[in-house]
Design brief:
alpha+beta; seven-stranded mixed beta sheet; elongated; single chain; 25% helix
C-alpha cells in the first residue's frame, strides 16, 4: 500500500514538473501574442525580395512620381495603412524642402511590410497625399487595397468611388506621424 502511494506521489510530482516546464508554451498557444509590425519600406521601382514568413510585398503602379516620403498606421491587427507624402506636405511637416518636380502620375514601386510572424490575413491600403493650396489640409486619394491570405500572393481590390479619398488636416497628420515617423523613399 505504501508503495502505491509513493508511486502516485512521484507520478504526480513529475506531471506537475512537466506542466510547469511547458506552461509558457501552453499559454502562448492558447493565447498567442498579437503580431508586431517591424518594418515598412516604400521604394521606387520593382525590387524583388525573399518571401519569408511575415514579409509581404506589394509591387506595381502604387507610387506617385511626386512622392518623397511616407508614413504608416496600423489601426488594428492585420491592417496597415500607408500614406504617401508629396514634397509640399513633407516640407510642412518637417521644415525640410526638396526640389522635386513632378506630374502626379503613378510609377512602379515596391512596398515591403514585415511582421514578427506570419499572419492569417493582412490588408494593406496605400493612400497618395497632396497638400492643399492653403497648406492647412492634405488630400489623400486611395490607390488601392491589397489583401493577403496565408502569406500568399496579394489580391488587389480597387477603391470604390465613394470611399477613395480623405481630407486630413496638417495637425491631424502630425499626430499620426508621432507614432511611426516620416520615412523618405528607400
Amino acid at each position: 500500500m505504501d508503495r502505491k502511494i509513493t508511486i502516485i506521489v512521484v507520478l504526480l510530482f513529475i506531471s506537475v514538473a512537466l506542466v510547469g516546464a511547458f506552461w509558457g508554451d501552453i499559454l502562448e498557444r492558447a493565447n498567442p501574442s498579437p503580431p508586431r509590425l517591424l518594418y515598412v519600406e516604400l521604394s521606387e521601382g520593382i525590387t524583388p525580395g525573399p518571401e519569408d514568413d511575415g514579409t509581404y510585398y506589394v509591387q506595381g503602379n502604387l507610387l506617385s512620381n511626386c512622392t518623397v516620403a511616407f508614413t504608416y498606421l496600423m489601426p488594428e491587427p492585420g491592417r496597415v495603412e500607408v500614406y504617401e507624402l508629396d514634397a509640399a506636405t513633407y516640407k510642412a511637416l518637417t521644415g525640410n524642402g526638396t526640389g522635386k518636380t513632378c506630374s502626379d502620375e503613378l510609377i512602379e514601386g515596391t512596398l515591403k511590410v514585415q511582421f514578427d510572424q506570419k499572419l492569417e490575413s493582412l490588408s494593406i491600403q496605400v493612400w497618395n497625399g497632396k497638400l492643399s493650396e492653403d497648406g492647412a489640409n492634405v488630400y489623400f486619394r486611395l490607390l488601392g487595397t491589397w489583401q493577403f491570405f496565408d502569406n500568399l500572393s496579394a489580391v488587389y481590390v480597387a477603391p470604390s468611388p465613394e470611399k477613395d479619398y480623405k481630407l486630413v488636416t496638417i495637425q491631424e497628420l502630425k499626430e499620426m506621424i508621432k507614432e511611426n515617423g516620416v520615412h523618405p523613399l528607400g
